[in-house]
Amino acid sequence: MAEEWPEDLEPTEVTWGVVYNNRGFTSSLSNAQQIVAQPGSYWKCTMTFGVLYEEDERELTSLLGRLHGMFGTVRIPHLTRTRSDNIGVPVVVVANAQASVMQLQGLLPSRPVFSRGDLITINGEMFEVVEHASSDAAGKALISVNKRIRKFIPAGSPVEYRNPYCEMRRMDDTNEWTNQPLVSNSTLQFREAF
Prior knowledge:
Elements: E1 3-4, E2 13-26, E3 33-52, H1 54-67, E4 74-77, E5 88-94, E6 101-107, E7 112-114, E8 119-122, E9 125-128, E10 133-134, E11 141-144, E12 165-170, E13 178-180, E14 183-192
Parallel strand pairs: 1-4
Antiparallel strand pairs: 2-3, 3-14, 4-12, 5-6, 6-11, 7-10, 8-9, 12-14, 13-14
């Protein structure tokens, strides 16, 4: 079970990105390239805590202690892409492994529901919506996402769109932070857990 990110623990800087699982070959004869895209892309997150006062430092170090390095997982929220509007109660209809399009239902009918750049979370896996999407009269919509679906997502799985998060693990086993009188700081790297 993934740890919840402490609500009061806010980094001073967060870097998000996706690491794609592509392989390239360049011909030594013609210099032509061939690129193969494979499933297995994952989110990467680097968090910097510029100033950690004692209570924040204790919260952070105890979370890291519960994670046991790379072993445990934590739900890291994407703080800048939250939503407060209501588009219904979306659930998965079809989300097949290796596809980059999924069908959702339970949306408010006949209206725009997602814009480019919106984030959604399904079963701990975060996706970015890459094309505008509108629901049909039955409240269904096809959603194009930024990375291939890693494994089959069961029908009826709820879709979190208001407070997206990604279930992640540490990228290394070392817990380090720098102490100065009264304050501490730390930079941590995480990768999507699967």
